[in-house]
């Protein structure tokens, strides 16, 4: 059975730790400093609920000069990690606009997403209460919310696996819907003729 490939996009404002999360997940390394202008993609094969899948992960830059590329990412992405820093309330607010943009471009209210509060190791610097982020996730229709630490590798695998699981379920549902449509007989004029020709005939003996 061939492996299915899924496209994940990591979004959020600059400095929230998107690249650190991605590098920890893909390479098991902690990056102390990272060039914020770099956008990169990674491939990683993982197993989710017994399924072998390949993730194509796009780590986007959060700086303003790259915002023109976001529409392309949103069109091609199948699932989105929306990352903010628990030390920055503004980074959480920025995600609301990103989510609306995703929904608008995808023309879908049920796009696979995970909300990630990164830098959970910096509890003393917390600016976003857990309850505030959780409330937002509920307002978004129950989007899963995790607090993660790329530095400590806390909940790093979990956020990617949760997102991948959502994509798998949506992909399966879409394929089943297509198969159901494909098995329905077309109700065209030709079918009506065929049905007429196969009507039982009355024979008088």
Automatic annotation (TrEMBL):
List the molecular function annotations (GO) for this entry.
G protein activity; GTP binding
In which family does this protein belong, per the annotation? Belongs to the small GTPase superfamily. Ras family.
- Please classify the protein's predominant subcellular localization into one broad category: membrane
Basic residues bias spans: 182-205
| SUPFAM superfamilies in UniProt | P-loop containing nucleoside triphosphate hydrolases
Q: How does it sit in the membrane?
A: Lipid-anchor
| Region (Disordered) location | 175-205
**Which cellular component terms (GO) are annotated to the entry?**
plasma membrane
Enzyme Commission numbers on file? 3.6.5.2
**Source species of the chain:** Didymosphaeria variabile
- Output this protein's name: Ras-related protein RSR1
User: What Pfam family does this protein match (any one)?
Assistant: Ras
Look up the domain of life of the source: Eukaryota
PANTHER family reported in the protein's UniProt record: RAS, DI-RAS, AND RHEB FAMILY MEMBERS OF SMALL GTPASE SUPERFAMILY
Reactions performed catalytically: GTP + H2O = GDP + phosphate + H(+)
The record's subcellular location field reads: Cell membrane
Keyword tags: Cell membrane, GTP-binding, Hydrolase, Lipoprotein, Membrane, Methylation, Nucleotide-binding, Prenylation
**What GO biological process terms are annotated to this protein in UniProt?**
regulation of establishment of cell polarity; signal transduction
